[in-house]
Design brief:
It is a single chain. Helix content is 52%, strand content 12%. By secondary structure, it is an alpha/beta fold. It is elongated. The N and C termini lie far apart (68 Å).
């Protein structure tokens, strides 16, 4: 016990550095379930995935993934079953940065869409991959 009291500063530095070393591992595992832009294209082409943009109408009109349907996040729970009737189809959820679509995956899975995935990085990642956008 005396050792802990005498060396409290060294122990706190060791714990802080350990936490900083683990942070990238923890942060990357949080977004590990997100879909890449190329993975989304493969799902769209091979498995006929449905793309749902959970952005607001103004953001959607400014630019969105080609063929995406717009359901704002606030209306997702009531409108998703009307737009995507087949719950076996893969659903790709997209927003500007990936934050809203990440939360939307939870809503979609709660509704029974087990193949719901978020586009990691959102529309920004889509643009960075030089993939086409559609404007309303």
């Amino acid at each position: 016990m005396k050792f802990l009291i005498d060396n409290w500063m060294l122990i706190s530095v060791a714990l802080a550095s350990g936490g900083m070393l683990l942070w990238p591992l923890i942060a990357s595992s949080a977004s590990a379930g997100a879909l890449t832009a190329s993975g989304a294209v493969q799902l769209m082409n091979r498995d006929k995935a449905v793309v749902i943009d959970v952005s607001e109408a103004e953001e959607f009109a400014a630019g969105h993934v080609v063929g995406a349907k717009n359901i704002p996040f606030a209306q997702l729970e009531e409108k998703l079953p009307l737009v995507v009737k087949n719950k076996a189809l893969p659903v790709i959820l997209v927003c500007a940065t990936g934050a809203r679509s990440g939360r939307a995956v939870g809503v979609a899975k709660k509704l029974g869409y087990e193949q719901a995935q978020s586009l990691g990085g959102g529309l920004k990642a889509w643009k960075d991959a030089n993939l086409p956008l559609e404007k309303a």
